[in-house]
Amino acid sequence: MGMKWSYDPEPADMRRQNDEVIEAVQHRPDRVFGFVYLNPNHLEASLAEMERCVKDGPLVGLKLWVARRCNDSALDPIARRAAELEAPFLQHAYLKAGGSENLPGESTPDDLAQLARRHPQTAFICAHVGAEWETGIRTLRDCRNVSVDISGSDPTAGLTEMAVEELGAERVLFGSDAGGRSYASQLGKVLGADLPNRARRLVLAGNMKSMLAPILKRKGVRV
Asked: What percent of the chain has pLDDT above 70?
């Protein structure tokens, strides 16, 4: 997303936010890569943004937030096009702790599992490991096309170790959730975890580099 967070952006707002991301990445296109922000409540506009920003523009993946739960069939055309473009599909997914309710359109890890099973050729990322991370990890364990990012929560002991143990080191991604969390707290989840050095390197950088390799090659970008 751009500088303005919108739960359910209209097409013009979505386009403005993506323009902000494009402007930002153009400062260092060899080091900074952006994802297009989509709203499946405006399907045709979202597909058009994928063409403008990913196929014909500099962005390399897509992000969906809380406009509509991701198990909805409205997301199927977006997931299919992501596979065709070899663009990773990052989905915000949350299970709030303490009895709090999710936002009306906010997805859960199970919602993402349903979408991922319908689209086995698409590379998905579950943002925040679903928040209630033990449930999120177990829910997504058998979805081989879903990786998890460990961003957003406090650096709780055992989170990263369980994700690596249950999913494999190749399916766990460092994330900062910058703006909402400090880089130090999120790095602490990996640097303070009891992991082999190989797994630590994969989580911090190697897995994302591998995930982006096909689309970066398509765009002629060397990393």
From this structure: 98
The Cα–Cα gap between 25 and 58 comes to: 8
Alpha helices in the chain (DSSP H): 11-25, 43-49, 76-85, 109-118, 133-140, 159-167, 183-191, 197-201, 207-218
Spatial CA neighbour of 148 closest among 192, 92, 220, 214: 92
pLDDT in tens, 27-39: 999 899 999 999 9
DSSP codes, 112-124: HHHHHHH-TTS-E
In degrees, rounded to 5, the angle at the alpha carbon of residue 206 between the alpha carbons of residues 22 and 93 is: 65
CA dist 81 and 205 (Å) reads 26
3 pLDDT above the threshold of 70? no
Structure confidence by residue, pLDDT tens digits, 44-57: 999 999 999 999 99
Within 10 angstroms of residue 58's Cβ, the number of other Cβ atoms is 16
CATH of domain 11-218: 3.20.20.140
As given in the structure block, the two tokens for residue 19 are 């323009």
Where along the chain do its domains lie? 11-218
Whether the CB-CB separation of 190 and 174 falls below 8 Å is answered with: yes
Chain segment 203-221, per-residue pLDDT in tens: 999 999 999 999 999 999 9
